[in-house]
Specification:
Layout: E1 14-17, E2 20-23, H1 24-28, H2 30-35, E3 43-47, H3 53-64, H4 77-80, H5 95-100, E4 107-110, H6 119-123, E5 127-132, H7 135-148, H8 158-166, H9 175-185, E6 191-195, H10 196-201, H11 203-213, H12 220-229, H13 232-236, H14 273-286
Parallel strand pairs: 3-4, 3-5, 5-6
Antiparallel strand pairs: 1-2
Helix pairs in contact: 11-12
Length: about 300
């Protein structure tokens, strides 16, 4: 791995932890992830990649700071709400290094499947906010992210990538296992399970859900301000939220932006009829044992 100022970054290969593919830097630092300790009051935002993670991070930070836009401009989102399994090369700091310097209670991000969530989160009854996005839009968003992210393995052509996704041969493994894992535990643990499609359809309603889950009391004015500040267009224009502070040595912005379209149903611009039929058949098999109400179209109810 070359330094942060280099134009070239070596891609991290996939390795496995207990059968789940992860980027090699996650595997190499697994002892630190396993040894991380949550404090009572910590809030964990958990998602499969490209499910609206940054969106909910910004909402939560605004809730914690009572809608104070300036406070939420204090640093990029990945510094304000560190990513527990991110271990970038120097000069960047790892998520755990950032978290260890923060006073609790902290807000923390993870993409880990539920079986890898540190037991200290459950022991301390930490609030966990999980965001899920329908599989078809997830694979499209992940594909474009893998095209622009120089750390991730080469996605290859779309018609091959869709099969990698279906087989869980991407960082953080199977989408199906991930969304089902948290769904099956949501009533047994302190988990708020949200859907990307609901955030798109009625952002205010979902913001209020998060406020209540976090045991906060905010005025209508503050809630309205949070909703306004976290619309897709405002988030996309916010350098402290849109990841444009990440250097070109890591993200190739000529291939995609980090925040791309933020739509429900964009998969229709990528899937052929044959691919959609194949994906639907596979989806039905994988999700037969779990009735999660996903919507792949903004008009579905």
């Amino acid at each position: 791995m070359e330094g942060g100022s280099s134009d070239r970054v070596e891609k991290y290969p996939l390795q496995q932890i207990r059968g789940v593919p992860m980027l090699s830097f996650v595997v190499e630092n697994w002892h630190r992830i396993e040894g991380f300790k949550a404090f009572p009051g910590d809030v964990l935002i958990a998602t499969y990649p490209k499910a609206g993670t940054t969106w909910v991070q910004e909402i939560v930070d605004l809730i914690v700071n009572e809608g104070d836009k300036e406070k939420c401009q204090r640093a990029p989102i990945y510094v304000r709400i560190p990513f527990i399994e991110m271990f970038p090369p120097p000069p960047f700091k790892s998520g755990i290094d950032l978290l260890e310097k923060m006073s609790p209670p902290r807000v923390i991000k993870t993409h880990l499947p539920i079986q890898f969530i540190n037991q200290s989160f459950w022991d301390n009854n930490c609030k966990v906010i999980y965001v899920a996005r329908n599989a078809k839009d997830s694979v499209v968003s992940y594909y474009h992210f893998d095209r622009m992210n120089k750390y991730e393995p080469e996605p290859g052509p779309w018609n091959e990538y869709i099969h990698k996704f279906m087989q869980g041969e991407v960082p953080f493994g199977s989408w199906y296992d991930h969304v089902k894992g948290f769904w099956e535990e949501k009533n047994k643990r302190n988990v708020l399970y949200l859907f990307y499609e609901d955030l798109k359809e009625n952002l205010r309603n979902e913001v209020i859900k998060i406020v209540k889950f976090m045991d906060r009391s905010l005025s209508e004015d503050i809630i309205n301000r949070i909703v306004e500040l976290t619309t897709f267009s405002n988030m996309k224009d916010n350098p402290m939220a849109n990841y444009t502070t990440i250097p070109d040595s890591v993200f190739d912005y000529s291939k995609s932006t980090f925040m791309r379209k933020g739509q429900v149903g964009d998969w229709k611009n990528h899937f052929s009829a044959e691919e959609a039929a194949l994906f639907d058949k596979h989806y039905e098999e994988k999700m037969a044992d779990c009735n999660i109400p996903f919507r792949c179209d903004p008009t579905e109810h």
